[in-house]
Amino acid sequence: MIDAMSITRAPAAMIGFPQSMQKRDSLSFSRPQNPQRFTPILVEVPAPAWTLAYNRIVEGVAARRDPPSVGEPGGTSNRGVIGVILRVMPKRPALVRVALVAAVSVLSACVGGPAAPAPLPVPVRSAEPAPPAAPVAPAPAPGPSLPPFPKVTGSLVPDMVYPAEGYLLAVRESTFVFGNVGNGDATLTINGAPVTVNPNGSFMAFLPVPTDTAYTLRASLPTGETAIAVRRGRFPARGGAPRPAATLDTTGYPRAMTLVNTNEFAESDTDKVTIARPTPGGTYKYFLLPGTVVEATARLGRSVRIRLDGQLDAWVDDAAVTSSESEVRVRRISAARAAVGPGYTDVVLSMDARAPIAVDQSNDRLSLTVYNARANLDIIRFDTNDPTVKLVRYEQVSNDRVRVDVDLRHQPVGYLVLWRAGSLVLRVRHAPAVDAAAPLKGRVIAVDAGHPPGGAMGPTRLRESEATLPIAQQLRDLLAARGARVIMLRGTADAVALGARPIRARQENAEAFVSIHLNAFADGANPFAIARGSGTFFFHPQSEPLARAVQAGLVRNMGLRDEGIWFNNLAVARATWFPSVLAEGAWVVMPEQEAALRTTEFQRAYAMGIVEGLEAYFERMAQSRTEKDGGVQTERATRTGAEVRP
User: How many CA atoms lie within 13 A of 225 on its CB side?
Assistant: First the structure.
């Protein structure tokens, strides 16, 4: 979908609660759980009359227990169990005696023991059976790393934050609901199901979706005050004539088309790009140079199929191509060289025209694939003092595909692909010279406070953007105290366009990029059945070491569950000039975590986790550079500070 965010992320794949700023990719941050059906089965097994004597013994034991719970009316379930034992073995008195002794021992052991878990609500029988209410799991108590809930005794005002009034529900069975009632002393039911209220008045539950989409909240105080609120959602319309499927149109194809820029925030060709996908409307996969002439072979709806070479097709949005009068032909790579610049090395391929390209990374290599091209290279020149590029090799993979391998002296830390004066340029960034004793001194760090626009919201209506800004500000201060130069990509409550953030970080020559976010669920998720901790996301392999370091720092400082690191096709993570990660340190929709996020202490813990991750990342870079220097002189400090403004 082409809109203001088109160059930042793949299109929406599901309807759900507002996720973090990039949750329109085919995979959300939290995998939606399958809605669960709950169908309790009631079985009544009366004890035989001839067991009366034994039942008196059981009643004597039961009398010393706590009063029967909701799931055990009158305590008869114990006698029923014994009845089963006696009924199935009426002709085996010896075995019966053994079974009775074992049963009495078990019952006696329960007397005075730990309290049993809260039982499930008893289904209500009616003439017209209806889907029973799902068990309501209590909100988990704050862990030792989380501050306690603040006590709120305000006005009794039931407020369902999700689903909001008129919200279009993507599921019809069960989903989470959350909000607050304004008073921590209140009791709450939603459509008759009891829901735990936290001391700050917040609540979270997992309930069946009402068939009429109406949620009735009834909150009460010990004083007898009662307040009722109704929230009604919507279901997608059913029935009607199905929309006709798009058909593949090959009329007038193949024909030459020119790729155009799809990054509306790009001011120079350094940031301009044409997005191509492996399937129509699919995820972002190929990042091509605008101005490249390609052969279009078909159209499907609003997508155009283009030929990268004889063995590979891709799809672009119809707005990403325009008719061309140029002829599509195999490009020729006639010369190559590697030249050291201020803070980078340019691998320059002399070509007669732009071609479709792709860049892949490995541990110490960048591989540039040039589609619809042939290479004829006899000589490749290298600078003797290059601290980064060790070797450039090429292979004619097929009749019209060339792969250029650039072997590096260290792991990739950033690159750009440019077109300059008849040459395709792969600009390879040099690793900075890092002081292992003060790894953040002199480093340039881009800090992105996630949102607005968009963002999630917690039970007491704390917006994601409201929480990420003070975390980013604390992170700024902690980094500056360690000698880093910090680029604040959002320093106020004002909205900043998502696509503009990585561009500014590139213009400021950032050496690392960290985006701060808070997580949320997709419709239908059971918040009590999935992870609710800290996770870190990356896209390019060059960012994986930073993601691991930041994730370790978050878990160590925030004390939440380790959800690991994730490859994810996210807008800010797709920048190539620097390692870039997106942190989902906590879940703003979980009541105890939302309450913690309002405190300076927890905000600082989030920020400190990122600081420690950045320190570990750059410290390891310094160690690795020392180990793998191989006699190459360390690059002059003036180069590490050079800005890149092609």
Answer: 13
